[in-house]
Amino acid sequence: MKPHWSGVFPACLTQLKRDQSLDLPATARHFEVLIKSGVSGLIVCGSLGENQTLSPDEKLAVVRCAVETARGRVPVLSGVAESSTAAAIRYVRDVAAFGGSGVMLMPPMSYKGDVRETLAYFRAVARGGGLPIMIYNNPISYGNDITPAMFAELADEPAFIALKESSGDPRRITEIHNAIGGRYAVFTGVDDLILEASIVGIDGWVAGTGVAFPAENQRLWELTREGRWDEARKFYRWFQPLMKLDTHPHFVQYIKLCAQETGLGTEWVRAPRLPITGDERKRVLKIIRDGIKNRPKLARR
To answer: Lower CB density within 10 Å: C or N end of the chain?
Structure first.
């Protein structure tokens, strides 16, 4: 049976030690916190998981860590951002061998292909990789736009299960629905468009800042599912300054700093990224600490 993905699939952090080596025990502890918060899946080694600065062996070690931690409770997906079609197919096969449930696939980041090349790349990986796929569209960050018309053209490939729409334009979600109906599970990938996206109709949320506030993130998602819009708006107004940390070029540093402040990780990143300093650090810490101070009280379940 074809899997159906829905709900919150957080874009997980890859925990590192100060010397930039992997900290798999800390990564596993964070996975466990996310699972217990009620998420529906884990996405590891995405952009927030520092995919491009990890070696293939390191990425697969994170995948194995997630699979072993999840123990079948939620599906585990891995980001795919290899620079060639052959490398992407090989990596997807390796994820399958390590027990991954699927992948989140973006166009190659080192080359901005035209429409023909982009479609050929996606088809080749779908046919050669052997796992279900969430297509990731983020033209703002990665310069390659997968339009609703392109999604419609790819709809005949059964490996494509879901779309992560991060164009920054919530109108795209309606355009996707109008072009393709219910062919794919549609996820938003922009934290501070979650209310707009929920109103026009989504199946899931690839959450960023929420990895540092998993209980609150899950609660906001549940409010949107229940149509409790007045409560959701109030909750969102608290969360929105924190969510905007996910839309900056330093989003990895910012969200890792969030996780450090909430006791769910450390801020260490893999070079060329460096931890933020000076006035930028003071500004971001104020946003985080104000958010922690004013975080909503959640009823115990």
So the answer is: N
pLDDT bin (cut points 50, 70, 90) of residue 251 is very high
* pLDDT at position 109 over 80: no
DSSP state of 156: G
| DSSP bridge partners of 79 | 104
> Residue type at 154?
L
For residue 211, give the CATH number of its domain.
3.20.20.70
What is the extent of the structural domain holding 253? 7-293
Give me 274's structure tokens.
């460096």
- Per the annotation, the verdict on 36 as an active-site residue is no
Confidence of residue 1 (pLDDT cuts 50, 70, 90): very low
pLDDT, one tens digit per residue, over 150-170 is 999 999 999 999 999 999 999
Q: Is the pTM here over 0.90, yes or no?
A: yes
Which position among 136, 184, 236, 254 bears the catalytic label? 136
Catalytic residue check, 136 = yes
User: How many whole angstroms separate alpha carbon 107 and alpha carbon 119?
Assistant: 9
Angle between helices 115-129 and 85-97 (to 10 degrees): 30
Residue position matching structure tokens 């149509």? 227
Residue 280 is assigned to a structural domain of this protein? yes
Q: 79 near 51, Cβ under 8 Å? A: yes
Residues 6+ apart with CB under 8 A from 138: 47, 106, 164, 166, 167, 189
Q: Is 2 inside any structural domain?
A: no
Q: Is residue 72 part of a domain?
A: yes
